[in-house]
């Protein structure tokens, strides 16, 4: 701060016509914006491949599925809305989730804003209220308010009403419905989803929700402190075998229910690659022995999630 003040004084000495209040005001505004960008990054960086990237890809898939060629204006407007919508989707949830999980994060994720001291608890609450209002306003303005309001409801239930305490609500229910809110909302920014798109998003969201308990492998100690009954805690050593079996079974269901409806030959190759990816994920589940390794396995699941959305994006 002292160095900054000296620099400002030198600037004024070289040009007496400058207003020190304006310079200081600009400096404080610049610092505040930089701080908020850093806060956003630390709150969200782990989850971009589970929310922002797949949501934006889903909007692109919706643009590609239009009966007529989308104009440049529609494409630019839809993508801008999608990125902002997905940012608010993720940021509003993560703030609430991390407010609820301070005790856990002091064990598992010390780099997060609250346990690291980058953001105060009061500051986190202010940001959550502001981002939630902005998210609801965006959903209302862009015609996807039902999905937006449902996600806010899920966020409150999961983080402030104890919904995170049991694996069935935390992952199977809320992760499934939350993924559905993301995909349906992102598609709806372009056009109302048809019955086929809805069936596809329900299938993909259900598959993701079933496998989402993988994320709890990296947080077992913190979850015990928080009093959670996650699936790795409930099943113990059997969890890895159960999840590995599910990782191999889920692609078969997806092939039966969705991929076989496509006539494009390249879709079959995409499905084969995604299936092999889930088999590799199953291998990693059985082999995992550290939190860091298990975190990478969960990240592979989010990449497969994005890969599934890439199929209708590339082959509408």
Automatic annotation (TrEMBL):
<keyword id="KW-0472">Membrane</keyword>
<dbReference type="GO" id="GO:0016765">
    <property type="term" value="F:transferase activity, transferring alkyl or aryl (other than methyl) groups"/>
</dbReference>
<protein>
    <submittedName>
        <fullName>UbiA prenyltransferase family-domain-containing protein</fullName>
    </submittedName>
</protein>
<dbReference type="Pfam" id="PF01040">
    <property type="entry name" value="UbiA"/>
</dbReference>
<keyword id="KW-0812">Transmembrane</keyword>
<feature type="transmembrane region" description="Helical">
    <location>
        <begin position="172"/>
        <end position="192"/>
    </location>
</feature>
<dbReference type="InterPro" id="IPR000537">
    <property type="entry name" value="UbiA_prenyltransferase"/>
</dbReference>
<dbReference type="GO" id="GO:0016020">
    <property type="term" value="C:membrane"/>
</dbReference>
<keyword id="KW-1133">Transmembrane helix</keyword>
<dbReference type="InterPro" id="IPR044878">
    <property type="entry name" value="UbiA_sf"/>
</dbReference>
<feature type="transmembrane region" description="Helical">
    <location>
        <begin position="298"/>
        <end position="315"/>
    </location>
</feature>
<dbReference type="InterPro" id="IPR050475">
    <property type="entry name" value="Prenyltransferase_related"/>
</dbReference>
<feature type="transmembrane region" description="Helical">
    <location>
        <begin position="133"/>
        <end position="160"/>
    </location>
</feature>
<feature type="transmembrane region" description="Helical">
    <location>
        <begin position="266"/>
        <end position="286"/>
    </location>
</feature>
């Amino acid at each position: 701060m002292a160095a900054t003040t000296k620099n400002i004084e030198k600037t004024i000495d070289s040009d007496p016509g400058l207003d020190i209040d304006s310079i200081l005001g600009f400096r404080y505004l610049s610092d505040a914006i930089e701080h908020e960008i850093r806060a956003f990054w630390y709150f969200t960086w782990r989850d971009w491949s589970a929310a922002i990237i797949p949501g934006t890809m889903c909007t692109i898939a919706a643009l590609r599925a239009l009966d007529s060629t989308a104009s440049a204006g529609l494409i630019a407007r839809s993508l801008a809305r999608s990125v902002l919508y997905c940012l608010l989707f993720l940021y509003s949830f993560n703030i609430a989730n991390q407010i609820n999980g301070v005790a856990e994060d002091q064990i598992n994720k010390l780099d997060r804003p609250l346990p690291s001291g980058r953001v105060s608890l009061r500051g986190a609450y202010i940001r959550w209220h502001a981002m939630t209002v902005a998210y609801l306003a965006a959903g209302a303005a862009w015609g996807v308010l039902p999905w937006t309001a449902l996600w806010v409801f899920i966020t409150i239930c999961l983080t402030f009403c104890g919904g995170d305490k049991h694996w069935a609500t935390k992952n199977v229910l809320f992760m499934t419905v939350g993924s559905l809110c993301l995909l349906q909302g992102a598609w709806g920014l372009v056009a109302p989803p048809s019955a086929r798109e809805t069936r596809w998003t329900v299938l993909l969201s259900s598959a993701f929700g079933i496998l989402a308990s993988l994320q709890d492998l990296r947080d077992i100690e913190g979850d015990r402190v928080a009093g959670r009954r996650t699936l790795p805690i409930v099943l113990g050593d059997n969890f890895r075998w159960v999840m590995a079996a599910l990782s191999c079974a889920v692609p078969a269901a997806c092939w039966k229910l969705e991929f076989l409806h496509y006539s494009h030959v390249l879709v079959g190759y995409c499905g084969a690659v995604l299936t092999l990816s889930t088999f590799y994920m199953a291998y990693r589940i059985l082999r995992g022995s550290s939190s860091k390794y298990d975190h990478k396995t969960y990240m592979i699941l989010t990449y497969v999630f994005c890969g599934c959305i890439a199929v209708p994006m590339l082959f509408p």
